[in-house]
Amino acid sequence: MPWIQLRISADEDTAEKYSDWLMASGSQAVTFIDAKDTPIYEPLPGDEVIYWQNTVVMGLYDASHDMDKVIAYLQSIHPDKKAMRFKLEQLEDKDWEREWMDNFHPMKFGERLWICPSWRDVPDPTAVNVMLDPGLAFGTGTHPTTALCLTWLDSLNLTGKTVVDFGCGSGILSLAALKLGAERVIGIDIDPQALQASKANAERNGVEDRLSLYLPADQPSIQADVVVANILAGPLRELAPVIMQFVGEKGLLALSGVLENQAQELQILYGQWCEMDNIAVQEEWVRLSGTRK
Ligand SMILES: C[S@@+](CC[C@H](N)C(=O)[O-])C[C@H]1O[C@@H](n2cnc3c(N)ncnc32)[C@H](O)[C@@H]1O
């Protein structure tokens, strides 16, 4: 079925209100996109949704919908109808799922590690291949913070090591560590849905017997050889003592989810406990790493 897409420019104060208007005018789906490419992480369950300062609110209508009526309705409720900026677009009738799948390819990280969607051929069957399809939890390898952690894990000799994946999301880093030779991984996440996704992904990769998953309230007290935490700068600051409790003697630590301008403060904070390496940068994101002194 062909579709018509209506785009309205909004900001963080008006985005939700415009979304309600689009739904009330018969839109079948509403999407928010960032007009300025400012990254925001997915909110945690129960957290307030954060909108971008320059948000585009998009409503999708079937092509037979009377869009003149929609525009007239929106202008009738907009406080300043002359200032209402909108655009109508006709969308080609495509197989959207197919199109999206066509754009998701196997990705290589470091020397040995590949993340492969299940509907693609594995490019190198002799490599370390993690089979992972995008799902509800964060972590497919496309985000620079995940990529920075995957490359770091690939650079280590993980054979026989115990690893803690703090903020495991889809389990992508846990699976990578296990496939790279880790003996055991402890995955921790505040979001129960992430733990479910990690479990399902571990089963798909045949490594579920070596992955233990916990909510923070139940997390075990263990000392790991390697700890990786891809959360955000705020929690990395607040939880520094908790995260450091997992890092065993001479243990290795990597932190991501940190923007370039937040790196220095965390480098100093974790420098209390670790000999810190040079910061690695990808796009505007960084990875900090170090070895417990
Ligand atoms: C950016 S995602 C990272 C997912 C995956 N590890 C990756 O590298 O792609 C951050 C994850 O940390 C979890 N998280 C955020 N704050 C947390 C906290 N205080 N304790 C445990 N997990 C947390 C989120 O639920 C989310 O799944």
Feature tags:
four-stranded antiparallel sheet; ribonucleoprotein; binds S-adenosylmethionine; alpha/beta; Alpha-Beta Plaits; 293 residues
Q: Would you mind describing this structure in some detail?
A:
- The chain is of the alpha/beta class and 293 residues long.
- It has 9 helices and 15 strands.
- Helix 4 (144-154) packs parallel to helix 5.
- The protein has 2 domains: 3-93, Alpha-Beta Plaits, CATH 3.30.70.120; 139-292, Vaccinia Virus protein VP39 (Rossmann fold), CATH 3.40.50.
- Helices cover 28% and strands 30% of the residues.
- The strands form 3 sheets. Strands 8, 9, 10, 11, 12, 13, 14 and 15 form an 8-stranded mixed beta sheet that branches. Strands 2-3-1-4 form a 4-stranded antiparallel beta sheet, covered by helices on one side.
- It is elongated.
- A hairpin with a 3-residue loop joins strand 5 and strand 6 (113-116).
- S-adenosylmethionine (SAM) binds at residues 41, 44, 137-139, 146, 149, 167-169, 172-173, 188-191, 194, 216, 230-231, 235, 239, 257.
- It holds the Pfam family PrmA.
- S-adenosyl-L-methionine binds at residues 146, 167, 189, 230.
- Belongs to the methyltransferase superfamily. PrmA family.
- InterPro entries: Ribosomal_L11_MeTrfase_PrmA, Ribosomal_PrmA_MeTrfase, SAM-dependent_MTases_sf.
- Its EC number is 2.1.1.-.
